[in-house]
Specification:
This protein is mainly α. Helices cover about 65% and strands about 5% of the residues. The protein contains ten helices and four strands, in the order H-H-E-E-H-H-H-H-E-H-H-E-H-H. The strands form two sheets. The chain has a two-stranded antiparallel ribbon. A two-stranded antiparallel sheet has the order 3-4. Strand 1 and strand 2 form a beta hairpin.
């Protein structure tokens, strides 16, 4: 190799390494900027989420009788309940000429709701009432109870006044949601919760007689069905008839026990 050829080769190698270093420097800079942007985005999102959470707590504080500390604790309980495996509830959205779309939402599903009623509030009632209670809590009708609905439902459960509890119970007993409790609905409620006695030939007859008696007691305006006005009038006189068609509220002892767990 001549001296001239060697010089050219060395020059080429030198240029190669110089270009390589410049390329590496050029690549490192955007990578560093990208990391900074990601960090900034995470910080911004974190601040935004905290602000939204604080705003939601203030909103719920106005809507309910819970203190700020109780609301924070309820949010933590909700998070634990919705982090249980299988708690992502899917709903199907149908569109004409399009495939089915299944959207996953976060919320308390029917299974966890039932266990919560049984284990925490000692409410052991039949399936029809459990389903109606779930539907009353699921304000968005999404098949899952979201955070705000969960807390508002607990507010009635734990700290509701008589009128709020009457409204909840009536809504639960009004099986078809038409604003009245009919004789057929009473029959269905009583039939599901009463136990057939041994040797009883026609238990339905006894349920019909019971439905007739309750209808006469609660039907204040004698129109053959029970409106909320009828129900409210009687319950104010006889509070023990609040859950005449089946248990759908916790006892005072269970409410006190649960509220104790929310304290510092």
């Amino acid at each position: 190799m001549s001296a001239l050829t060697g010089a050219i080769v060395m020059r080429s190698i030198s240029l190669f390494f110089t270009c390589g270093r410049k390329t590496l420097i050029h690549l490192k800079k955007p990578t560093s900027d990208l990391v900074k942007k990601k960090k900034y985005r995470y910080i911004t999102e974190g601040v935004s989420m905290k602000a939204q959470h604080a705003k939601m707590i203030e909103l719920l504080k106005k809507k309910t009788k819970f203190s700020k500390f109780e609301l924070e604790t309820l949010c933590k309980i909700y998070k634990k309940l919705t982090s249980i495996p299988g708690q992502k509830t899917g709903i199907t959205v149908l569109a004409r000429g399009a495939p089915q779309i299944v959207q996953t939402i976060e919320g308390i599903d029917r299974t966890i709701f039932r266990e919560l009623l049984h284990n925490t509030f000692d409410i052991i009632t039949e399936d029809t009432l459990i389903e109606r209670m779930f539907c009353c809590w699921d304000r968005e009708c999404e098949g899952a109870i979201r955070l705000e609905s969960w807390i508002i439902g607990l507010d009635v459960f734990l700290k509701g006044n008589l009128k709020e509890k009457m409204e909840f119970c009536f809504k639960v007993y009004d099986l078809n949601g038409d604003g009245f409790i009919t004789k057929d609905e009473m029959f269905q409620l009583f039939k599901n919760c009463l136990i057939k006695q041994p040797g009883e030939e026609d238990p339905d007859e006894g349920v019909r007689d019971l439905s007739e008696l309750v209808l006469k007691r609660l039907d204040v305006d004698h129109d053959g069905k029970i409106s909320f006005q009828d129900y409210q009038t009687v319950i104010k006189e006889e509070p023990l008839l609040l859950e005449a068609f089946g248990q759908c509220l916790p006892t005072w002892e269970n409410c006190s026990a649960f509220l104790t767990t929310l304290q510092p």
